[in-house]
User: Fold this.
Amino acid sequence: MEQAFNDQVRPKLDAIHRIRPYLKDENVELPAIVVVGDQSAGKTSLLESLSRVNLPRGEEIVTRCPLQLQLRQGKQHASIRYDNPQNPEKAYIKEDIALERIAEEVRDATNILCGKEANIKNLLITLQVSRPDAPTLTLIDLPGIVRVRTGDQPDDIEDQVEKLILHHAAGLLSSMYDV
Assistant:
């Protein structure tokens, strides 16, 4: 059964991972698990448990833009990619990230895309991690639902998070219910 999966299904999943970045503006939704919940409710911890990848943590809002974590089975390797907000045609790509540096690289990318304040943005960070024991899976971590605005969060933080969640969950819901 595992050999049949590796021979027949895995090449198709790998092809999906390769073309995913090119389809983001084409309104094509590819399978993924989107994690949604209240701020500081453990969404990132859940993703860490599923993926065995360390992600940024903190007491204030940490996930401030969508993080797409693409797991693949293969030789150990990690890379990060995100569009340059000043020049969308030129993406930032960093290859060969040490697994123990992933959280720091994601935090740095978040600060570049969102600034150092508590801003959120709908700018995607794509993190690809390959390991011999990894499942083929795409997980999307989103900022948490804000119930009470704190610190330097924008006045409309609740609306911003809601729009971001709806944007990323809409494809999943429409495919489930033929909306």
